[in-house]
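INFO batch 0412 | record 1 of 1 | parsing
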Amino acid sequence: MTEPEKSLRDRLVDVGVDLVAEEGAQALTLREIARRAGVSHGAPRRYFPTHLELLSAIARRGFAQLAVRAATVLDSTAADPRTRLSALGGVYLDFALGNRGMYELMFRHDLLESGHLGLRDSSLPLFGALVELVAEARPEGDARVVAGALWANLHGIAQLWGWGSLQLATGTADFAPLLHTALDAHLGPEGGR
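INFO prediction complete | emitting tokens
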């Protein structure tokens, strides 16, 4: 791929990232991305033969952003696995709530289902880090299953918090108590209490 072609490909993805941030995943049409990139509506098909391939490239950027944030917090957090899990959970929830359109796009089943789009390769390392931390914090359990349940719990908190349901139901203005309760539910009480 020549430099101008790479540049246009990257620009299309950049425009998609901006569009999903501004208007949500439903706004990500090939025509709108092309219009905002200043190219013909057929130009994206040169680099992304299907709409799903472009959406997947945009979602990979989201996973990359989340991975950088996760690595930063894990590198700067104490060695205790539970503390690290709490920090990772906080980053995940902050990302989900601060990037609602991207977060929605990142976990679309139709994108994840297709192995050739490469999205699983972008999402699995973060889950792998979660599994490793769970294995350290709760060595007697099946770390993959516990990590999956914890992730599902965090995903549910993110969705319900984003809709305003949890604030209404719990009367809290901070998701931190919910995060800590989820950790207790999946890892046992902190300090074995």
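INFO post-check: The mean pLDDT is 90.
INFO record closed
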